[in-house]
Amino acid sequence: MKLDSQQLDSWTNDGYLILRNVLQKDVRKDVLAESMQAWRKVKGEFQDDASWLQNALLPNIHHHSPAVCRYYFDGPLVQIAEQLIGPNIKGATSQLTFKLRGNTQTFGWHQDNGYGELHPANAISTLTALDNVDQNNGCLWAIPGSHMEGQIDIADVYSAEDKAADRPLDMSIQNASEAVPITMQAGDALILHCHLLHRSEGNHSRDRDRRILFMRYADADAVERYNDDAPRLGPLLRGISRFNQVTDFEQELWNFDSGQA
Ligand SMILES: O=C(O)CCC(=O)C(=O)O
């Protein structure tokens, strides 16, 4: 999947891109079936009184689903990462990010490099819609161009303890009125610059879930600023890394058969 000059311009100017029909229907069916099997096993049904984390996130979904693993390691979004980051790419995160019907919790303003600052700051987040997503069922909102502000210091609102406890971050920002809703069809993917300000509303639909497959890609040499510049461990997907731990990481998963779905 090759980005054209208009898409590259909007990436530069807006800090995000919406790519249509990236996860095609037949593969999406497997991704969804294996993801739901894992979600039900680990999480169960949505519970009103459970924590944000319990209701929203299932990390390392590629460990549970061979179809997700294939898409994460070798799907079209890896080619997008090569074009936006460079020739050396590792996977930095894979998770399910769900707002099932009934989950009206909001997700506050943040930059993805605020939750886990990686350096160099050119990681991308990819959010593949597994359902149609609109304002009613909790689509994302983003502030076009906000990535140009760079890394915003959140030390006073988000401590190391907050991070360790995986607490949600909610930055207070001046220009919230400039935000635009990002609606998607199932199979579309939203690509976010790691400095783009974004948030989401709750899912107010009675009968529609909002399920997203979230995958983050980084430069293969990216390090964790919040962890004494230790290399971010993630599977090397393209090119080379100067870190042996990265070169070796999860290489056994390349056969795509080791999922436990
Ligand atoms: O799940 C959501 O609604 C927001 C997800 C998000 O912003 C993120 O994972 O960075």
Written description of the protein model:
The structure is a single chain. The radius of gyration is 17 Å and the shape is globular. The longest helix is centred in the N-terminal third of the chain and has 18 residues, at 25-42. The chain is built from 8 helices and 14 strands. A hairpin with a 5-residue loop joins β12 and β13. The protein has helices spanning 5-14, 25-42, 52-56, 66-74, 76-84, 112-115, 160-164, 244-248; strands at residues 16-19, 57-59, 89-99, 107-110, 118-119, 124-129, 140-142, 180-182, 189-193, 198-200, 210-219, 223-224, 230-231, 236-238. With 261 residues, the protein is an alpha+beta fold. The chain has a single domain (5-255), classed as Sandwich (Jelly Rolls), CATH 2.60.120.620. α4 runs parallel beside α5 (76-84). The protein binds 2-oxoglutaric acid. 2-oxoglutaric acid is lined by residues 97, 99, 107, 112, 125, 138, 140, 198, 200, 212, 214.
